[in-house]
Every structure is written in C-alpha cells, then in structure tokens.
Amino acid sequence: MDSNLTRDSIAEFIGTFMLVFVGAGAALASGGGAVGAGLGFGLILVVIVYTFGHISGAHVNPAVTLGLLLGEKVSTVRAVAYWVAQFAGAIVAALALRAVLPEAIRGDLAATVPAEGVTNVQALIIEFALTFFLVSTVYQAAVYGKAGTAAGLAIGLTLAAAIVFAGNLTGGSLNPARTLGPGLVAGNLDALVFYLIGTFAGGAAAGLLHARYFKTTPAAP
Fold first, then answer.
1. Whether 45 contacts 1, CB under 8 Å
2. Does the global pTM surpass 0.70?
3. Is the Cβ–Cβ distance between 25 and 70 less than 8 Å?
4. Which fold has domain 3-212?
5. How many CB atoms sit inside 10 A of residue 155's CB?
6. What are the extents of the domains in the chain?
7. Exposed, middle or buried: residue 170 (CB in 10 Å: 0-12, 13-18, 19+)?
8. Residue 160 in contact with residue 43, Cβ under 8 Å?
9. How confident is the model at residue 31, as a pLDDT?
C-alpha cells in the first residue's frame, strides 16, 4: 500500500469513527429520537466532509465507496482499503461508545434494526431508497461539483433528512459500516444481511446511474 493510500485510509478510519461515535452517540443521548439522531449524524458528516474531503474524499461509508467504484471514480485497490478502514472505524467507535456511556444510556448502541411492525424486506427497501438518495447527492454535489463549496452541507443535510424520516422505522442507517459496528458490538445482527443488501444495492444503483446517464461537467469555480 503506497503512502498516499495509507494516509487516505487512515482518514477514512477516523472519519467513520467520528460519524458513528457522534451520530450514534447523539441517537442514544436523545433517547432514540429520530430528530436528535438525524442532527447528530448530519452535522458531524458536514464536519467530516470539510475536514477529510480534500484528503480521502470523505466517503466514510462503504456504500458510497461502492457507488464511486462502479462509476470508475476510485480504483478497486483503493475501494478495498477504504472498506477495511470504514468497517474498522465503525467497530472501534461502537466499542468506544460502550466504554464511555453509562449503561442506562448505551442500551443497544443505537444498532439499526427494523422497528416493530416493519418487516426486514420493508427495511431493505427503505434503506435502498435512502442510500440511493445519499449517493446521488454525493455524485452531483461533490463528484460533479454542482454544489461547489456547499457540497459538504448538501451531503450532510441529505443524511440528516433521511434519518429524520427513517430513524423510527429502520434506524436510518444508509451505511453498511454504521450498521455492522454497533450491531456487532451490541450482539444484534439479526437483520444485518437485509441492511447490507439494501445499502450496498442503493449505493451501486446510484453510482451506475449517475456515472452513465447523469454525468455532468464540474461547475466553474
């Protein structure tokens, strides 16, 4: 692994750690409310994009990386390195939350599971759609530069809005690492395969669509 890829992978590890630690922490501190979770995840993602975007691209999400891989925006080697870093960052963040939060608050570490009355298939469809929206925003706002310096804000607001909608239905993951980390540490992996399929498929669909049919030239500076 070359030095730049090592540097970029470390950025992805730290960024994903920040996303899960602050986002899931906000969800727990707000008592599981979708608005609190949405604000926590959305705001910290804005910060992550502006902090690490110029270093690694600030994917901090394996589904985003897959979408960019299928759109030929990153190499296979880089994608694999990012996936390792992202999943590791999410797991370490969940371990950190378990270590620092009081037992009365930490609960299931905000693991993303379908709410009562929501089937696994319904959760898969919701996660597919919302991840598709998120990766679509990444493509148009950041990859194609249509949001200019506001790209981080556009991406963060997309995640926040999606979690406000889905937080009380599926937990609002939109991110395979965000689901695996807390789920693994909390020992709650019952619906993991449905979340992985939904989020990865949503990212892949957005990547293929925007790279092949919605490709645009970057906006003028």
1. no
2. yes
3. no
4. Glycerol uptake facilitator protein (1.20.1080)
5. 25
6. 3-212
7. buried
8. yes
9. 86
Q: Please work out, in degrees rounded to the nearest 5, the angle formed at the alpha carbon of residue 135 by the alpha carbons of 131 and 141.
A: 140
Q: What one-letter code names the amino acid at 191? A: A
**Does residue 15 contact residue 89 with C-beta atoms inside 8 Å?**
yes
**Cα distance between the two ends of the chain:** 33
Q: Which amino acid is at 213?
A: Y
Which ranges in the chain belong to alpha helices (H)? 3-29, 34-52, 62-70, 76-100, 103-106, 120-137, 151-166, 176-186, 192-212
pLDDT along the chain (221 residues), means of 10: 88 98 96 93 98 98 98 97 98 98 93 97 98 98 96 98 98 98 96 98 98 79 52
Report the SS3 class of residue 146.
coil
209 token code pair = 């669509």
**Degrees (nearest 5) of the Cα angle 33, 35, 38?**
110
Structure tokens at 202: 């949503």
- pLDDT confidence of residue 183: 98
Q: Which residues contact 74 (CB under 8 A, 6 or more apart)?
A: 57, 65, 68, 82
